[in-house]
Amino acid sequence: MSAPSETIQPTPSSRIAVPPVTPNEPPHVLIGGAGLAGLFLGILLERAGIPYEIFERSAEPRSPNILPAFEQLGLLDELLSFSKPSFGVAMLTDKLKLIGKPLASNTDIIGYDRVLFSRPDLHNMLFKKIPKEKIHMSKKIVTLDQDQDGVTVTFDDNTTARGDILVGADGAHSAVRQHLYKTLEMDGLLPKSDTEDTSKGYISLLGTTSSLDPSNNKKMLDEIRHFKTPYGTMGDLFDVTDIEKVSKVYFEDKLFETWTHGRTVLIGDGAGAVNAMQDAVLLANYLYDITPTNFKNIKTALSDYKNERFEAIKDQYPQSHISAKLIFGHTLWERIIRYIVFNWLPASLQRKQMVKDTAYRPQANFLPKAPKRGTMDTIPQNHSKRIQREKGEQETKERAAVLAI
Question: Positions of the region Disordered (predicted)?
Answer without folding.
Answer: 1-21, 366-398
